[in-house]
Amino acid sequence: QFHKPYQIQDAYPRPEVVDGHDIVIRVAAASFCHTDIMVLEGQFSSLPKQHAGSHEPTGTIVSLGADAAALGFKLGDRIAALGWRGLCGECVDCKGPVDKRYYCRFMKGYVGTTLPGAFSDFTVVDARYAVVLPDTMSFVTAAPLTCAGATVWRAVQSTKAQPGEWIGIVGSGGGLGHLAIQFAVKAGVNVVAVDAREEGLELSRECGAQLVLDARKGDEQLTVAITEAIGDDKIKATIVLSDHETACDTACTITRPHGTVIQVAQPQRVSFHFRAIIFKDLRFEGSLVSGQKELEDMIHFVLEHKIRVKTNIYENLDAVNLVVDAARSGKVSGKLVVVLD
To answer: Which parts form a coiled-coil structure per UniProt (predicted)?
Structure first.
């Protein structure tokens, strides 16, 4: 039922390979995302799907289809996967650029949202959106990268910021934001981090943001603080990771004229003043997770640059409702991860 805690089912049948690209994994670690709360609240369907939650899966391959094997996967591989499954192969997106194919409107569904997720002993992922993990990366580190990491990796890339330039991140101190800061800083890009929680502000500082500002002080004071610290019209693009009703307005305020606002957060409606797009000539983009190649590149970047994935670990599925409570509290710093195996 919507708006109810998860129910733990002890005897859940192990899924079978149905499609050639199917990979069945024994789940090792799965992390929790704000989207999981949206699923629990019924924002993605009119009726409950009765599926396990979590679209951030990692684990070991226990069975796979012929097409997955042809792509080089094999039994026993340690993998991480994005949630996309069963693209149609025929629509304009599927026949377009590889990095846009996951926008397919006719796919089978998304793990943990419209299809069974990773809060389960076993789950099914699509080989076209899976990668083999390096031996030096743990499942606990990898799980948050399959959504939180992949999402902000693409968003940071979309800013097109070059070393020495500035970007803004609104909602900088959460599970996505702390990774976005590090991805940018390690690439030589300067970050103005904006958050409205003490935990978020502290984590933003820890992750290396050059300027950290408290959104609760209001947009006017933010503008003054930015000008005093780095000068006028420096922020080339701003990524919105907060679903607060004023977050996009804040992004518009701090972004320089002719700049770009990249919307990642998913509130029911995105709101901003008309002056933002008319008088400042701002550009707006939406950004949604990423593709397989981007996931692979990001994982190697995380290892090479020693990116810190801050996690809060919970043992076993019995803890999933504690995870939900922690997420709803708004006091969490980093990502919530459930270890299953």
So the answer is: none
The pair phi, psi for residue 149, each rounded to 5°, is -65, -50
Query: Helix, strand, or coil here: 25?
Result: strand
CA dihedral 131→133→139→141, nearest 10 degrees, is -90
Distance CA 300, CA 297 (A): 5
Helices 177-186 & 292-304, crossing angle to 10 degrees?
70
Q: Which 3 state secondary structure label does DSSP give 37?
A: helix
Structure tokens given for 312: 């809060």
Compute φ and ψ for 164, nearest 5 degrees: 95, -20
Residue ranges of the alpha helices (H) in 106-218? 139-142, 148-158, 177-186, 198-206
Rounded distance between C-alpha atoms, residue 153 and residue 47, angstroms: 32
Domain ranges, ordered by start, for the chain: 22-146+310-339, 150-286
β-sheet bridge partners, residue 115:
111
Q: How far apart are CA 314 and CA 288, in angstroms?
A: 27
What pTM was estimated for this model as a whole? Answer: 0.94
Asked whether this chain's domains 22-146+310-339 and 150-286 adopt the same fold, the reply is no
* C-alpha–C-alpha distance, residues 290 and 132, integer Å: 16
Residue-wise pLDDT for 133-179, tens only, equals: 999 999 999 999 999 999 999 999 999 999 999 999 999 999 999 99
For residues 51-74, average pLDDT: 96
Q: Report residue 42 as tokens.
A: 């019924």
Going by C-alpha positions, the residue among 163, 141, 125, 159 that lies closest to residue 299 is: 141
What is the tally of helices (H) and strands (E) in the chain?
Answer: 11, 15
Q: Which residues contact 149 (CB under 8 A, 6 or more apart)?
A: 179, 298, 302, 309
Confidence of residue 12 (pLDDT cuts 50, 70, 90): confident
Neighbours of 300 (CB within 10 A): 12
- Percent of the chain, pLDDT > 70? 100
Q: Which CATH superfamily is domain 22-146+310-339 in?
A: Medium-chain alcohol dehydrogenases, catalytic domain (3.90.180.10)
Q: Which CATH class, in words, describes the domain spanning 150-286?
A: alpha beta
